[in-house]
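Lab channel / #folding
Pinned by the channel admin:
"Please post every new chain as: sequence first, then the structure tokens as a reply. Keep commentary short and put observations after the output so the thread stays searchable."

First post following the new format, from NK:
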Amino acid sequence: MSGGNIRLVSNFQETCIKNYLHNYPNTPHICSDIRNLTGNKIHTKTGMKPRELDILDGSPPCPPFSMSGLKQKGWNKTKTVYGKLQANIEDLTFDFINIAKIIQPKVIVCENVKGLTMAPVKRHFEKMLNGFQGNGYQTIYKVFNSFDYGVPQKRERVFIISIRDDVLEKL
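Reply from TO:
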């Protein structure tokens, strides 16, 4: 987000927040599970009203969708993820969509592993796309390989981009 004004950083892992704040010490932040966030908390912390934010960027945890991960094997179960006991992290994608509904940013960016677009979790991915699309946004997705952009590894990621209808009309 080079040159951007970061209004809020949220992560449920304290170590991630501490690392971020080490590099960007004055960034407003919330260390909480996204399932505990409310529109009021976000608006209070950012000082913004719905529809004011330019870009909402979020990347829900990828282990449930990873090619080397568990995929659906551990769904709907409590498990240790990133060193913490977590339940149903595959549903966090929908919590991110709910946050987007509350904030109503101009653009939403969501990134995850390519495995999210493939069986057996493709139906979950399609529900995600419908969740963005059904809330006044036009949504597209594309899989990119980081190697093609100068990163010294072959790592495919899916990027979902949603643009609010009124913003798209002005383009």
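NK: The longest helix spans residues 92-103.
TO: also worth noting, The mean pLDDT is 85.
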